[in-house]
């Protein structure tokens, strides 16, 4: 896997973060970021997608695992953006753990 394959994560994160600063009516991301429940709504979605990912793994359905994992990662990116945590922050922590 090359770094360019992973650039989609940066692209998606950048779009999510832009929605935080420049809301667009009807945007799903904006609805999460501006939900009356605040961060709790985002955490509900992260939890829901985590459970769905676990269930897909238990069923050993690769396509479903990929699909649910993508949903989980997406909602985690929304969570990171809501909390002003960058992907670089995550990468730095992972680099520290690798040493």
From TrEMBL:
Keyword Kinase: no
Keywords: Amino-acid biosynthesis, ATP-binding, Cytoplasm, Histidine biosynthesis, Hydrolase, Nucleotide-binding
One Gene Ontology molecular-function label: phosphoribosyl-ATP diphosphatase activity
One GO cellular component term: cytoplasm
GO biological process terms, semicolon-separated: L-histidine biosynthetic process
Pathway assignment: Amino-acid biosynthesis; L-histidine biosynthesis; L-histidine from 5-phospho-alpha-D-ribose 1-diphosphate: step 2/9
EC number: 3.6.1.31
Locations listed in the record: Cytoplasm
InterPro entries: HisE, PRib-ATP_PPHydrolase-like
HAMAP family documented for this protein: HisE
Family under the similarity heading: Belongs to the PRA-PH family.
Protein name: Phosphoribosyl-ATP pyrophosphatase
Species of provenance: Methanomethylovorans hollandica (strain DSM 15978 / NBRC 107637 / DMS1)
Lineage: Archaea, Methanobacteriati, Methanobacteriota, Stenosarchaea group, Methanomicrobia
Gene, per the UniProt record: hisE
């Amino acid at each position: 896997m090359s770094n360019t394959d992973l650039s989609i994560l940066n692209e998606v994160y950048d779009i999510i973060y832009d929605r935080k600063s420049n809301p667009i009516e009807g945007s799903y991301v904006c609805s999460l970021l501006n939900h009356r429940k605040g961060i709790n709504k985002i955490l509900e979605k992260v939890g829901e997608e985590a459970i769905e990912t676990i269930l897909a793994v238990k069923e050993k359905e690769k396509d479903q695992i990929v699909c649910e994992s993508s949903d989980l990662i997406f909602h985690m990116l929304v969570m990171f953006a809501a909390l002003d945590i960058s992907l670089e922050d995550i990468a730095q922590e992972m680099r520290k753990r690798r040493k």
